[in-house]
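Revision sheet: structure tokens.
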Amino acid sequence: MSAHYDIVHAQYGSLTALIAFLGRKGRPLIISFGGSDLLGSSGKGFNWMVRNWITRNLGLLAAHRCNKIIVKSESLKMNLPEDLHGLVAIIPNGVDLNVFYPRDKREVRTKLGWKLDDFYVLFTPSRANNVLVKNLPLANAVIDLVREKVNNVYLEFILDKAPEQVATLMNGADCLLLTSLHEGSPNVIKEAMACNLPIVTVNVGDVYERLKEVLNSYVIDSYEKELLSEKVITLLNKHTRTNGLEQLKKQNLTSEDVAKKIWNVYNEVFDDDRRSQEKRP
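Predicted:
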């Protein structure tokens, strides 16, 4: 017995979107592009170039036959062919405020076994195909420069952690560092905002839009390690949190807000499909 459904929603481009298109059985199709399915993964060599080309074009093949496209940022929209822009809704992922919220820093550090007077900078590497995208060598170079002027600085990785563990790290840390070569709408930035964690990031994806009104956070239009390290040092010396949670709420990026936006897209697509069927002879 097959389950009844009204809409097919592919949560990724590439082959996922194409399979969803082929299996939709006449139902309306929505495709969400997240980032690397449009921008590619930064693997080395000719094989990776071919893989990225295939990944992107499989997704676009389905996108030209879908009813609606969801992307996480304006920059991702601009990486779609112009003839698809009319189908696009820009909806970043939301943050679960039941998990990500400010907590007492000293209590969290005691739980983590971190020293109260040391400095901890968070970084998100990756074990997936986009490991090079995260640009760990630059993050290490930045922290090396920071250590020349600030004692007892540690780079802590957010890797293979449950959301609750990530939230704990963010409440214990002094700063989040992001050095990615490209992003769509990085979840780690919004999660850090929810925990009022200061941020230093290169200008990728939608980070400027997210952080332009957030105090004690910096968006740098450069990959120069000197500039990035200077801002990290500034934040470490301030010992001050941000107004990130307040701004996240103003931007309507809680999980509940985003769920409502997606639900509205579903209703729009369903109503358009129903009207189209009613017009058929």
